[in-house]
Amino acid sequence: MTTTTTPPETAREAPPETRASDNAVVKGAGRVVDFVDQRITASNWLKRNIRKVFPDHWSFLLGEIALFSLILIILSGVFLTLWFKPSMAHITYEGAYIPLRGVGLSEAYASTLELSFEVRGGLLMRQVHHWATLVFIAAMSAHMLRIFFTGAFRKPRELNWLVGLSLLVLGITNGFTGYSLPDDLLSGTGLRIIEGGMLAIPVVGTYLSFFIFGGEYPGDDIISRLYPIHILLVPGLILALVALHLMLLWYQKHTQYPGAGKSDRNVVGYPFFPVYVAKAGGFQFIVWGFIFLMAATIQINPVWFWGPYDPSQVTAGTQPDWYVGFLDGALRVMPAWGIDILGHELALSVLIPAVILPGLILTPLALYPWIEQKVTGDTREHHVLDRPRNMPVRTGLGVGFIVFYILLWIAGGNDFFATILEIPVNWISRFLQFSIILGPPLAFWVTKRICLGLQRRDREKVLHGRESGIIVVSPDGEFSERHQPLEHGDAYALTAHDRIEPIEPGPATDASGVPNPAYKKERRRARLSRFYFGDVIQKPTREEMEQAHHNGHGELESGAHEEHPGDQVTTR
Amino acid sequence: MSTQDEDAKRLTGELEKTPADHPEQAGEVERQAPDGDPIPDPGLHDPGPRLTEIDTRAAKRAERQVAGMFTLASVFIVASIVAYVIFGIDGGEEGVDIGDVQVSNFALGITLGMAMLLIGVGAVQWARALMTSPEFAEKRKPLRSSDDVRESALASFDTGAAETGFGRRKMIRNSLLGALALLPLPAIVLLRDLGPTPGNAKEHTVWAEGVRLLTDVTFEPIRAADLEIGQLVNVMPATYEELPDHGPERINERAKSPVMLIRMLPEEINAAAGRENWHVDGIVAYSKICTHVGCPISLYERTTHHMLCPCHQSTFDLANNGEVIFGPATRALPQLPIAVDSEGFLVAQSDFTEPVGPSYWEREA
């Protein structure tokens, strides 16, 4: 092996007094490796992997937060199962919480009260479990946005994009099933809304509801049915997919941001052992520590305060967990549409937000890597991340989606906003009905313009350097600002992305006038390509760089031609 | 002037760019700028040694920091056990004191949280300040297998497939596919007993002719004179009180039968045809279960007779047959026809004349 493929073990060696070989711990580890190696050839794998390189960037921590909060969810969840009784059997409460003594309620609710009031650390673990879930889903969402905006989903990582999306869906599902288990007033209200959504499904909806609830709503089966789903089925799927997610990540090696020395053919960073064992291992405890501090200081879901579930009661102004908010918001602002199909009732006002909308969000998200591949026609491997500004349309689409999501989320708290803004809730709903349609395209357009502006600035910086703030007067009285050239590495990072130009369709007919059968398809693709890349500001070419330097200062200020992005391609 | 020239040359790639003092990185700079790319790759930048590598005092300081954090973590761990023991929550016969629970929760959470935080920050600081690992580059191999490997893999598959005769022996193939296609059916059939079929269960409640309206919670019968104008009373049918505590029937009726009784001036009621005698002196009875997704409705505005569902803000006009005036609900609130029995108590004239609660497919539109 050459020096380029092996990590430079000799590059900066540890001082001799701390050489590993005489250390007792290392000797012990050696014996373990020896034992395992003689059975499964472990050294071969270790040799290749123990010094595996991982790039460093704060945004790569988002996925780690998700992973570590998941581990904490599982540990705290196991603690909770030791006391929780998933039963809707009706009992008379005789526990430690005086206000509910003598009240008839379910065993599930009573055991949740027991966990909170009769088990030391039980309330803490309940709050850790709940907070860790909110952090888990938030971290997964932020991680997914990072992946989207930097193009990390591109080949060869499309599969891991799908695995990640499935994890997000499973995480939300399990969060909701867990929310329903304590059988308090809020959890029951959540289930009631889910059941209403189920009923809106044509043909099979009523049957689905009767099978899931064991008869009419709410019955006395649902909690013992959700329990194995919550603690076994979905967590099992999540763990399996997390394992797959990490194996793919490990095998394909991590992506990296553009910069000096970084390319699609290498990965630059620090060795897994010891740097990431210490950093990621430490970060796990930091995440756990933060969640424990939250659980210690911020109360979450005080179930004793809501009381046991009673289908005829509801408390105003309560909100679901944050990740369900957008669906609840969609239910709130959907116009009251309903149609009659051959004497059957189809409640579109429920069906669309509760059933169709999640599908409308998830399908394009799942397919996006392939959609973009279709537009670019790019089948190469990508390991260097995009800076979001260099893909203005993708970034615009992402921000448009975020705006759509946030507006739905605001709708989920429209009563809350009505209270703090002191305006009628109806106005907020009406306003949101319009802005949910108009907001995302506007956000797309604004984001795209901002990206193009940032690209223009990058181009300026590469061509003429950054503004120094120093004004120079030439002998003939001309004022100009001196520009300082960029560091070589910085200039490289600004120009390391691909120069992508829109595809042109071939001619409609060939030379002898025979129509090209694929012309319509080509034209469609060209149109899409123009939508994505038609007004991208290209990085300067080598000739433009030279020209900029030959022309000197006079040229620096007369950058009028920069206003016509179309020119730049033709100068090549 | 000369430095500017040099910078210009550097940017256009005329200058040599190999960092000669870092031989392990020199091999990485083999990448040439592709055609048209203005800036060649300058190669990995070596930030040089850490402060702790050249300054032993800085190294000692960092070592003390890290060890200090780990030690402090131990202190917090012990403190958490002490907190567990001394902050009890058992209130005995008096029941629990929420304050005790909060103190225990706070003490346990802070000590454990701080312990973990310190272990974590200590480990990260150790890696950042003291671990001597340099940044380096590892080559990526293309993920695609080489052509001959792909070909031989495919050939192996072809050989295996040929050995089974899968393509040739159509009878075996089709019968196997048929059996496998049928296999999921029992999995679905076995789930059949999860619940009964709906039947007409959703069309009925325990309301019926002559069933008294009882105040919710206290289950007292109600006389028309008990209600003042503008007053709202939640009621349940007398038949509900007789349902057993155990089993699903009671809670299922709780989700279907709740009714709101509101009194308004009789002339304010704009009754639809056929509903003129459904009220008793301005007392109207409406289902409490929202027709949107089934939340119990609870917010009444007595001057407008508007009833708002707190879940999704569907708003119903109770003076006008429960029509929807705002929000996502598509159907009016079902009204319960009421009358007065021989003893002067309010009773239902019949069950609801339509299913209560959310819309569903089998419901007649």
From TrEMBL, chain A:
Transmembrane spans: 65-84, 130-149, 161-181, 193-215, 227-251, 272-298, 346-371, 392-411, 431-451
E.C. no: 7.1.1.8
UniProt subcellular location: Cell membrane
Topology in the lipid bilayer: Multi-pass membrane protein
One annotated GO biological process: respiratory electron transport chain
Catalytic reaction list: a quinol + 2 Fe(III)-[cytochrome c](out) = a quinone + 2 Fe(II)-[cytochrome c](out) + 2 H(+)(out)
One family name in Pfam for this protein: Cytochrom_B_N_2
Domain Cytochrome b/b6 N-terminal region profile: from-to ranges: 32-258
GO CC, alphabetical: plasma membrane
Region of interest (Disordered), ranges: 1-20, 539-572
Broadest EC class assigned to this enzyme: translocase
SUPFAM superfamilies linked to this entry: Transmembrane di-heme cytochromes (SSF81342)
InterPro entries per UniProt: Cyt_b/b6_N, Cytb/b6-like_sf, Di-haem_cyt_TM
Cofactor: heme
Ranges of biased composition (kind: Basic and acidic residues): 10-20, 540-566
Keywords in alphabetical order: Cell membrane, Electron transport, Heme, Iron, Membrane, Metal-binding, Respiratory chain, Translocase, Transmembrane, Transmembrane helix, Transport
A single GO molecular function term of this UniProt record: oxidoreductase activity
PANTHER family membership: CYTOCHROME B
Protein name (Swiss-Prot/TrEMBL): Cytochrome bc1 complex cytochrome b subunit
Organism: Phytoactinopolyspora halotolerans
